[in-house]
Amino acid sequence: MTHHPLRAVDVLLVAAGGATGAVLRHLVDAGAPDSLLPWPTLAINVVGAFALGLLPVLAVVRRSRRVAAALGPGLLGGFTTVSAWAGETRHLAAEGHVGVAGAYLALTLAAGLSAAALGQHLARRPEPEEALG
Fold first, then answer.
1. Which of 15, 47, 112, 128 gives 20 to 30 Å between its CA and that of 122?
2. 77 annotated binding-site participant
3. Domain ranges of the chain
4. CA–CA separation, 105 vs 107, rounded Å?
């Protein structure tokens, strides 16, 4: 891994991306109906894992480490949330919903890892060759 000197603009780009991601996460949470299973956090984390795996397919991400940082650790880092997932799992278990907590834990892990792998797979696919005509 090549390390680049940290510059204030890099920190600001990641911060702006993180703030945007956090606002998007809040909007998803605020707009979701209440349910026993915290599906908004599940969906956020699965979509974020997929998007993070898919990021390298974007030419702008491949060309610019700053764009990659703003979108990866910035936007997607602010959007996804392990802390909310852990807190929700603990809360479910503490409220006596141990089975739901276990299922939520396993489902989030399995779906998140699968989504990230799918995103990475799609990012590595060769570009289709244009038909000769």
1. 15
2. yes
3. 8-124
4. 6
Burial class (CB in 10 A: 0-12, 13-18, 19+), 126: exposed
Question: What does 70-122 look like in DSSP terms, one character per residue?
Answer: IIIIIIIHHH--HHHHHHHHHHHHHTT-HHHHHHHHHHHHHHHHHHHHHHHHH
Tell me the two tokens of residue 122: 């799609």
pLDDT digits (tens, 9 = 90+) for 34-78: 999 999 999 999 999 999 999 988 899 999 999 999 999 999 999
pTM: predicted TM-score of the whole model, two decimal places: 0.83
Q: Is 41 annotated as a binding residue?
A: no
Torsion angles phi and psi, residue 37, rounded to 5: -80, 125
Contacts of 119 (CB under 8 A, 6+ apart): 49, 50, 51, 52, 53, 54, 55
Check: CB of residue 78 under 8 Å from CB of residue 26: no
| Helices and strands in the chain, H and E counts | 7, 0
Nearest by Cα to 76 from 19, 7, 38: 19
